[in-house]
Amino acid sequence: MSLQDLCKAVETGDQDRGKDLAQKLVDGGTNPLEIIDALTKVMDEIGEKFTRLEIFLPEMMMSGEAMSKVVEILTPHLKKGGGGEPKGKVVLGTVKGDLHEIGKNIVKLMLQAGFFEIKDIGVDADPMTFIKEAQEFGADIIGASSLMTTTMPHQKEMIDILKDQGKRDKYKVVIGGAPTTVEWAEEIGADLYAPDAGSATQLLSGLLKK
Questions:
Q1: What share of the chain is helix, strand, coil (3-state, %, to 5)?
Q2: How far lies 37's CA from each of 74, 136, 202, in Å?
Q3: Confidence at residue 79, expressed as pLDDT on a 0 to 100 scale
Q4: Could you give the CA distance from residue 200 to residue 210 in angstroms, rounded to a whole number?
């Protein structure tokens, strides 16, 4: 039993073994922050493999789910030690008129595995809902997904409302979804375009450092 074994269990998406090994490691005195650090690197590698098409969606989701289960085991120990603060708070949703949520749910999984705190506001969320939820949640980032060209304008609408309310500088706005592009993000004034779930954690981590 070792940290390397746990990393392998998460990489292969073995939830039961991951939970069991995580519990044994913390019970045996391994620092939970050390475990999180090692597993974060594993998830970064998995994200990169997905981006390079070396693995596919089911494998990435299985790894993300295994990581989430391990984080559940570790969280109480992290809180006891005063460590493990979330990297940031993210409000995540799919814009008004769009009922697609698979992509959003995978991003949520990857961000949670990367130690972000997530408020998922679901699908068909209008711009004001994003803003209201971000304010109540104390979010650092608003993530708006659009999977149809007809709903993309709602990403712009949300940013325009933030500007009108004088709140644009309060939040980093990230957009994503199949029809969106980096050019669209620049056109509407978003802070970041996330091309896929695999790169989301690294990109959002970098965004908060700016």
A1: 60, 10, 30
A2: 12, 30, 14
A3: 60
A4: 16
pTM, rounded to two decimals: 0.71
CB atoms near residue 43 (< 10 Å): 25
84 or 204, greater pLDDT: 204
Residue 118: both structure tokens together: 């997530």
Handedness of CA 97, 157, 195, 67 (dihedral sign): negative
The pair of three-digit structure tokens given for residue 199, joined into one six-digit string: 């790169």
* Identity of the amino acid at 174: V
Please name each of the domains of the chain with its CATH number.
3-80 (1.10.1240.10), 89-209 (3.40.50.280)
pLDDT tens digits along 140-162: 999 999 989 999 999 999 999 99
**Nearest-angstrom CA–CA distance, 188 and 176:** 13
Is the per-residue pLDDT at 179 higher than 70? yes
Buried/exposed code over 112-122 (b: 16+ C-beta within 10 A; e: otherwise): bbbbbbbbbbe
